[in-house]
Amino acid sequence: MNAQDEKMIYRLFLTAVEKQVRSMMPAGYEVERGKALKNNSVELDTIVIREHGEEVVPNIFLNSYFQSYIDGRSTEEISEEIIRVYLENRNRFDMERFGDCSLDFFRDRIFFKLISNDRNLELLEQLPHVKINNLVLIFACLVEHSPEGIASIRVDNALMRKWDTDVSTLFEIASENTVKLFPPKIFRLENRNINLLLSHRLDDDAIEDLFVNDGAGEDPENEPKKWIPEDIPSLFVLTNHSGVDGASCIVYDGLLERIKRRIGRGFYIIPSSVHEVLILPESDEFCKETLEDMVRDVNSTVLAEMDILSENVYHYPEDSFTVSV
To answer: Would you tell me the crossing angle of helices 3-24 and 63-70 to the nearest 10 degrees?
Structure first.
C-alpha cells in the first residue's frame, strides 16, 4: 500500500468510526470528531462523546486504532471499545471533582514539562511558557497519578487568563510542585554503548538505582562521596520516579550541581527523549559533535516524533538551565 492509498483509507476509517459510534450511542449524546495538537506539532485525530450537559469529557485518540483496523479488526469492534473507554473514564474528569477549576484548587497540582522550542512554535502560541536555551517549559495540572499512568490538563493562555495570573507566578508554583510530584531518579548504566542505549531505549534490568534522595542537606564545604572512581568510565540516566516527562529534572533547582559534585567533574547531557536524559561524565573519548550526530540519527530513525526533546547535546556547567522569568 502506497502512502496516498493509506491516507485515503485512513480518512474513510475515521468517517466510518465516527458514524458507527454515533449510531451506537443512545439519544442525548453528541459525537464529534476533532484534532489535538500534541508535543512536537504532532496532530492527532480525536473523537469526543458528550452527554447533554457534560462539560469535561475525555479526548479519545483514533490514530492508534487504525493499525488494528488494517490488521482486520472491524469498525464495530473498534467503536465498541471507544464507547467503553469513554464510559470508564468520563467520571474521572467530572466538574464536581474539580470544582470551578480555580487556581486555588489546582495550586498544588501545577507542574512543568520540558519540550523543544523549535518543534512546537505553533503550539507555544497557545501556551504560557518559559524558554531555556532551545528548550521550553510548559505547564500542566496533575489530574491523576497512579500505577496505570498520569492524567493531566495542559495550562493554556485561556486558563492562565481565567486564573488572572502570569508566567512568572506559574513557574514559581510549578518549581515547588514538580520536584515533589515527580522526584528525580538517577541510574548508573553498565552498558556504555551510547548509540545502542539511545536506539533501544532503557532497560531497568541493566541499571542500578544510585540516587535514593542522595545529597539532601549536604554541607557544600564537605567533599561528597563520589559515585564513580576516577578511572572507571560510567554513564547515567536521569529521569523521575514516574518515568514520564523525566527530562524536566535538568531544570530542578541545584540538581545538576549536586550530580556534578557526586560525579566529580563536568558532564554531557544527552537528550534521550522527553522522558529521560543520559548523563555522560566528560572525557577525551567523546566530543559534543559526535554525540549530537548520534542523537540526530536516533531521533530520525527510532524515536516517535512526540518523544523527541532536542538534537543538541548540552555540557554542564557550561550550559546552564537556570530560569529567569
So the answer is: 100
Range of the domain at 81: 3-97
Main-chain phi, psi angles of 51, to 5 degrees: -75, 150
String of b and e for 63-84 (b: at least 16 CB within 10 Å)? eebbeebeeeeebeebbeebbe
- Identify whether residues 144 and 231 lie together within a single domain: no
Record the pTM.
Answer: 0.83
Domain boundary pick from 134, 150, 181? 181
For the four alpha carbons of 120, 121, 126 and 132, in that order, the dihedral sign comes to positive
16 within a domain of the structure (yes/no) = yes
Q: Are residues 169 and 212 located together in one domain of the fold? A: no
Distance between CA atoms of residues 82 and 78, nearest Å: 6
The amino acid at residue 20 is Q
Tell which residue, 286, 253, 247, 248, has the closest CA to residue 268: 286
What is the domain count for the chain?
3
Q: Give the pLDDT confidence of 195-249 residue by residue, as tens digits.
A: 655 655 544 433 334 344 444 444 555 555 665 555 555 788 999 999 999 999 9
Grouping H, G, I as helix, E, B as strand and the rest as coil, residue 91 is helix
